[in-house]
Amino acid sequence: MEEKETPLRSIREGLGISQEALARRTSLTTGTYRRAENGLPVKYSTAQEILHAINGILKEHDKPEVSLEDIGLTLM
Q: Of 21, 25, 15, whose CA–CA distance to 49 is shortest?
């Protein structure tokens, strides 16, 4: 699958964290996380889990939290 530039990818890369490391912060597989980041539709619960992980990392870096709209996931 071709990797797309998405808001979530930009945020993750800006934090210097890999897809695998971010997936480990959730209960998702790396493949599920990767598909979400590439713009494929995800369940709302999956989006919430990714958002929670991203905001946890942002908090660790003393950066402001983001919203679901900010990470640009496509919901089912």
A: 25
SS3 42: strand
Which CATH code for domain 7-71? Answer: 1.10.260.40
Tell me: pLDDT of 5 over 90.
Answer: no
Query: What are the sequence ranges of the domains in the chain?
Result: 7-71
Which residues, in sequence order, are bridge partners of residue 75? Answer: 42
Query: pTM for the complete prediction?
Result: 0.91
Burial-class residue 59 by CB neighbours within 10 Å (0-12, 13-18, 19+): exposed
66: which DSSP letter?
Answer: -
